[in-house]
Design brief:
- The chain has 12 helices and 10 strands.
- The protein is of the alpha/beta class.
- Strands 1-2-3-4-5-6-7-8 form an 8-stranded parallel beta barrel, surrounded by 5 helices. Strands 9-10 form a two-stranded antiparallel ribbon.
- Strand 4, helix 4 and strand 5 form a beta-alpha-beta unit.
- It starts with 31 loop residues before the first strand and ends in a 14-residue tail after the last helix.
- The N terminus is likely disordered.
Amino acid sequence: MTSTAHPSPASVPTGNGYAAAPSVNRLRPRRSCLAVPGSNPRFLEKAQGLAADQVFLDLEDACAPLAKPEARHTIVKFLNEGDWTGKTRVVRVNDWTTHWTYRDVVTVVEGAGQNLDCIMLPKVQDAQQIVALDLLLTQIEKTMGFEVGKIGIEAQIENAQGLNNVNAIAQASPRVETIIFGPADFMASINMKSLVVGEQPPGYPADAYHHILMSILMAARANNLQAIDGPYLQIRNQEGYRAVAQRAAALGFDGKWVLHPDQVAAANEIFSPSQEDYDHAELILDAYDYHTSEAGGRKGSAMLGDEMIDEASRKMALVISGKGRAAGMQRTSKFEIPEA
């Protein structure tokens, strides 16, 4: 989770004449985002007991066309009756180019809006698609008497047009919480020469995804949103999953999709700081607070052991400490006031 001094987008007024609920935490833990077919009750049951930060119940690719209408009602039942304690609850609807989208949103939100955190919209190509979803959600919330603005939006970027418009998409609504990279459809849309989702295409010596991932990350950070990496389809290849996840984590992404229970622990580990880094970040924050105080001499910079720390150090430490706190980590070190 990224800490920031800027106001949450939840507090920004929209063109619909409302301000999204200030109580909503748009920066939820999303180290591991578990995909679950909305048409499979057994998987929906099992997902409740897994240690994923987020679970998204899928009405898009994981549901066959003939199964989608019934899956909507199955999802409503499990959202209302299941135990999703500690998890961000998301439903991925079909994209706006299909005839399923509006009915996905209406059925799920009217039926289980009180037990839903976000709607994920796939294949987002421009800001107007987010605006349309925002308007539909607002109408449903007002009709049903729900808190207006509470349900967030996750925008999935899956083709070149979406990437070109990613910053406008990120700014389209205060409901937007995450920008997600959808590698499979993206690779197909640009004719990338690879059949392994997320792997480097043969013949290209550098990282073929760097520009895509950085564009998504910059749009997310510029608008106080989270950036999430998409799936790795070789679910038995733990080494491959870890390598792809570590790439995204190194850039600064907040989490990654998991398609199988065996990937959950890896995602939670990779997108959390190490114990050493977490402890060090907390020590920097404590030391900076002390040295800038009256008791500490009101210094703009100071030494922490052999390291000089200043305001820039504090900002960097806030990122690591925020991720660690969101992961429930506990400190194993304590700041000691230096002797005079």
